[in-house]
Amino acid sequence: MNKSLLKYLSGSLTRMLLLLASASTLSFFLVTASPMDTVDAFLDEVNVSDEQRAHIEEQWDLDKPPLQRYLIWAKHALHGDLGRSVSLHQPVASVLRERFKASLLLMGTAWTLSGALGFLLGVAAGMYRGSWIDKVIKTFSLVLASTPTFWIGLLVLVVFAVELRWFPLGLSIPIGHLASEVTWGERLHHLVLPALTLSITGVANIALHTRQKLIDVLESEYVIFARARGETLGQILRRHGLRNIALPAVTLQCASVSELFGGSVLAEKVFSYPGLGATAVEAGLHADAPLLMGIALFSVLFVFAGNLSANLIYGFVDPQIREGGRSNV
Amino acid sequence: MSESACVKPAESWLNRRRKTLLIIGIGTLILSGVFIWGLLLPAESFEADYSARRLAPSLAHLFGTDNLGRDMFYRTVAGLSLSIRIGLLSAAISSVIALILGSLSAIFGGTVDAVVNYLVDLCMGVPHLILLILISIAMGGGAAGVVTGVAVTHWPNLTRLIRAEVMQIRSAQYVQVARRLGRGPLHIAVQHIIPHVFPQYVVGLILLFPHAILHEAGITFLGYGLPLDTPAMGVILSESMKYLAAGMWWLAFFPGVALLLVTQLFDGVGEYLRVLIDPHSSRE
After folding, report:
1. Could you tell me which of B181, B224, B203 has the C-alpha nearest to residue A282?
2. Which residues does chain A have within 8 Å of residue B122's beta carbon, measured at their own beta carbons?
3. Is B248 left (phi over 0), alpha (psi -120 to 50) or beta?
4. B71 pairs with which residues across the strands?
5. Tell me, what's the ipTM?
6. Model pLDDT for residues B155-173, shown as the tens digit of each residue
């Protein structure tokens, strides 16, 4: 079994490397194809002569053909050097590290909250299928599934920040404070609204999925038999329901990090939360090619980690699904 | 069997099939109504009017007016129409990609299948918003960037569906019998595969619309999509952000509700059409 797991892991690793290579190639050529001018962005308002400009271009290897530039970039990236951000004047790697910390707090909170809430709602709907609870939860989830994240963010902003004034309008720390002076309380205070927005969007998927799984379980023959034995609904849920639906829910939640990442881009923009998503938006608008490449690469890695952990959790907990197991011998 | 042998309960004219058809019809009617209305709407109906700035919703201005005195109701109608147009275009392109890749990988298998699967993995491996931003940048922004971006990111699910469907039919007994009877691939494709896959394709296409519309609004909201002077949903909602703190909640609320209604209508039409075409899926 250990051997098969190892084989699976090495297979995943190869796939990830392949994926990263093609994703980076793709992003590089998309960025290169764009009419935006990174040199202009770098110079900002500064006037330079054509000679100086040519010098900068030469230093940045912009006079070389794209393929050669990609290879140079890839060589440096393999050594952990992702270049310098043009608009922020910092190494890309350190920008990523710093912004991801803020994003991780946001995404982690939203991920946990939406998972827990979605699961509970799904269980409630599935248990009382056909009742008004079920109908309310189902309609709510279906509507939510096609509601734009940023619009939810705007509504949350209007209600809780503008009308009720419970929470600040945006940013991750109070204006005019140094990051080091900010207390955790203030940080959390600023985190609530974006996290709430992001959690609300994540609930729909998991709730609908859990509901369907629970209904499938409750319709199975072993549950009918359990009912015939006289088990109550609570007992059935504990003994048969939760055991069967918890795992798919966790897996689904792990596999949803791609949407989580996309949602965080929008939520961070609405609340001017300085995370990775907002940075991606800024990088694009400021023609910051190196930073954009770094973020694209990082997001691929992030999504892959989510999917991989989904598969691994499934494999560890459920012997039937274990990759490369002996089940089909 | 005589007529009296199957006594049915008195059936009203509005049976489930008719009801479903009716809902699909009404939904389509409303959507095309909004679409055409927005197309025909003269630009004057939402141009700036400095005597009517920052008005809260009223009968004269259903959705209120913005900082420049533009009527938000007409702007929203125009924006929805634009969203539908872009959604239709990009979803159509996306579904054609899905149709081609899905059938190719099912028919040829082997290397082609592996390549298509790899493309699906690649497309699913990059968060869609990041990919949309990259494509929009590569195309220099504007409507072309949005349409390309949305079209390029939305095909994987439908591709998988079509691939599975085609593979299933190809191995079905009646197709194998047809092959043994000497029917050519063209005959099998036209007689067996297309009639089965086409309805699925249409439903998949319609269910792509809401996603396409939402992604268009999202990418425009971030500042990468349609230019700021177009009455697009993303532009309307992103502009509203500046005035929310001033208490002009209607700028974000009503356009968002309208957008939500449109996506819900598309979803509803698609789902009911699925029930009509594939009754097995309507167990719920």
Report:
1. B224
2. 19, 22-23, 26
3. beta
4. B65
5. 0.83
6. 998 999 899 888 888 888 9
